[in-house]
């Protein structure tokens, strides 16, 4: 009899957020464990998480880790399809159980012995059936979504749109009036950031209760839904059943305005060495760049899109202080030791590059197979998702490992770099600084001070 069994429960969609589906699974599994006399040492639950989409299931991964570390010697689920709906995950589960010596997989309706050929065969067949069911369900769902869109009807899932009642057709009188007002003010020339600040000042929230941001408001005002148009997969396909909040003409003018390439945004062209690196010493927020009274500064800003306290400001001459610190750091024994430690930790860099190249080649091969008709579109997409995820993770690791290459020729040679620095392009200066510096904390200053007190500036080194 198992000494340490675990229960796993999962439900793909929990529309009301009450977790009733997993509660029922857990109750039935607990009753089955009691009937068998199995001691339950842990329960793992993924609520509102699909096993077919390929997205990460945190509780499932934690359960696998418990099996690997020999914390569990049996698994109990309501049904096998709660564990897997993708054959590749079933194979990983089987391998993990085999390595840990776990053979007992029980369901409320019966047992599967993963240690026998017949048991594995049944598990694989059930996994294949579950995958086929999910694939068919996905196709039906997509076809239903298209039918709804062609009929001009709203889709069923997700929260209600701002401006509409929960039926997604009837106008919300207060919110619809807000949208009409915002649209008119935008077309009259008022900037998005001002409109966003007005929403925050008047405590008008999104339908999920969050504060508005300019990007959220931009998407809201650009939405074809506001003009009574039905959109499907990014394309307007006709009139909607619901009445428009703004006219189609207003919608077209708003889209043209907000997508105009010449339109200025609140992003400043890079002209600051420490952009994104400075943190407010009061609230910890990221400081932004800008000018006050004609002088370049780093500032903690409050208000729409910023969320800081507004209590810290420092002259951009802090860049000179950080430049001196970076150049000094390049000649220190501490940096040499940090680089040496990283190099030892990165002995697998070559193998990582080979893996990335192999995955890229496999994607090309996969595309060729699909083009030749040797595999179906679902097969191509399923395989591509797996390779893409691995490729993305490896490229991220490679980028992290490459951090020290930017400064490779300057370590222990800062005097030469100091001579080159004034004529060096800003982009190259930024790359060197960011290779060494994680972030910089700026403490409050003294009112009326004419120079920067170095004690205000704390550098947190990356290397």
UniProtKB/TrEMBL annotation:
Residues 4-152 form the Resolvase/invertase-type recombinase catalytic domain. It holds the Pfam family Recombinase. PROSITE patterns: RECOMBINASE_DNA_BIND (PS51737), RECOMBINASES_3 (PS51736). Residues 161-264 form the Recombinase domain. PANTHER family: DNA RECOMBINASE-RELATED, DNA-INVERTASE FROM LAMBDOID PROPHAGE. This is Serine recombinase. It comes from Terrabacter tumescens.
């Amino acid at each position: 009899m198992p000494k340490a069994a675990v229960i796993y429960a999962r439900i793909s969609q929990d529309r009301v957020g009450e977790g009733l589906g997993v509660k029922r699974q857990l109750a039935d599994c607990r009753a089955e464990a009691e009937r068998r006399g199995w001691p339950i040492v842990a329960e793992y639950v993924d609520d509102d998480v699909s096993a077919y989409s390929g997205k990460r299931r945190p509780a499932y991964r934690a359960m696998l880790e418990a099996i690997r570390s020999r914390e569990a010697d049996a698994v109990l689920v309501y049904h096998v399809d709660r564990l897997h709906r993708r054959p590749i995950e079933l194979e990983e589960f089987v391998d993990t159980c085999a390595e840990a010596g776990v053979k007992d997989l029980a369901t409320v309706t019966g047992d599967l012995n993963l240690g026998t050929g017949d048991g594995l065969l049944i598990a694989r067949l059930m996994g294949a059936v579950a995958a086929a069911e999910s694939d068919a369900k996905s196709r039906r769902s997509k076809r239903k979504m298209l039918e709804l869109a062609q009929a001009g009807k709203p889709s069923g899932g997700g929260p209600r749109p701002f401006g509409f009642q929960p039926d997604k057709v009837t106008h919300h009188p207060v919110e619809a009036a807000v949208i009409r007002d915002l649209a008119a003010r935008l077309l009259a020339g008022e900037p998005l950031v001002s409109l966003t600040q007005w929403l925050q000042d008047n405590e008008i929230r999104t339908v999920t209760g969050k504060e508005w941001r300019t990007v959220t408001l931009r998407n809201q005002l650009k939405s074809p839904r506001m003009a009574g148009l039905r959109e499907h997969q990014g394309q307007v396909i006709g009139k909607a059943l619901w009445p428009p909040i703004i006219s189609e003409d207003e919608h077209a003018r708003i889209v043209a305005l907000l997508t105009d390439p010449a339109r200025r945004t609140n992003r400043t062209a890079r002209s600051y060495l420490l952009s994104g690196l400075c943190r407010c010493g009061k609230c910890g927020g990221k400081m932004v760049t800008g000018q006050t009274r004609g002088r370049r500064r780093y500032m903690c800003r409050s208000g729409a899109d910023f969320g800081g306290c507004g209590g810290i400001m420092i002259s951009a001459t802090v860049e000179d202080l950080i430049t001196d610190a970076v150049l000094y750091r390049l000649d220190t024994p501490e940096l040499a030791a940090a680089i040496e430690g990283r190099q030892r930790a990165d002995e697998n860099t070559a193998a990582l590059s080979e893996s990335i190249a192999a995955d890229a080649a496999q994607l090309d091969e996969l595309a060729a197979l699909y083009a030749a008709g040797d595999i179906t579109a679902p097969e191509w997409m399923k395989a591509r998702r797996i390779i893409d995820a691995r490729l993305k993770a490896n490229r991220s690791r490679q980028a992290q490992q490459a951090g020290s290459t930017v400064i490779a020729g300057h370590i222990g040679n800062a005097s030469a770099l100091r001579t080159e620095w004034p004529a060096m392009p800003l982009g190259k200066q930024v790359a060197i600084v960011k290779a060494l510096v994680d972030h910089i904390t700026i403490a409050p200053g003294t009112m009326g001070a004419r120079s920067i007190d170095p004690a205000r500036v704390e550098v947190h080194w990356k290397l």
